[in-house]
């Protein structure tokens, strides 16, 4: 495929939604080819329906392996319907989460096994790997404080997990970044929002200077 696949990752509360809300208009203005924003779980009709099951706060009895399988199923449908066609059409795809999330949340957080979850998603994605992953990172205490301050009315099932769960998730992300430093670029999400957004833009532009014009300051 000739497109560019960029993913955004990070533990809960690092501000991915806020960053992407400000970053995407800048990327769209600078991009020299069509750019598509999407998210996981979700991004297509069937995948969005699976998302509702996954994040429903009432589904407290969901088995962790069931959860991992549902994330992989939603991911597969999202790829088939949205991501793969866009990449084949030479577009830039920016996705809020991808396989790294499952490895961190289900593999490490819920202790299903990082390798087991990776292998499951290898089947689901047929080996598709992002060209670049931006990992927004912040200490767990910072992320959870932000959730309490700004997302009390939007908490999902995973937001209700224990502190130890969130520590395992962050640890897995940092381990992935150490394993794949060329693909996964860590950005300090404790900085002011405007600075984080600019750092993300610069990272992407530097990777593909031919596809993104430099910003006029």
UniProtKB/TrEMBL annotation:
Q: Which domain of life is it from?
A: Bacteria
Q: What is this protein called?
A: Thymidylate kinase
Say which enzyme class the record assigns: transferase
What is the protein's species of origin? Agrilactobacillus composti DSM 18527 = JCM 14202
InterPro entries in alphabetical order: P-loop_NTPase, Thymidylate_kin-like_dom, Thymidylate_kin_CS, Thymidylate_kinase
Gene this chain is encoded by: tmk
The cross-references to PROSITE patterns, in alphabetical order and at most eight, read: THYMIDYLATE_KINASE
> What is the protein's known function?
Phosphorylation of dTMP to form dTDP in both de novo and salvage pathways of dTTP synthesis.
What are the recorded Gene Ontology BP terms? dTDP biosynthetic process; dTTP biosynthetic process; dUDP biosynthetic process
- The UniProt record lists the keyword Nucleotide-binding: yes
Question: Which Pfam family, giving just one, matches this sequence?
Answer: Thymidylate_kin
- Name the positions where ATP binds: 10-17
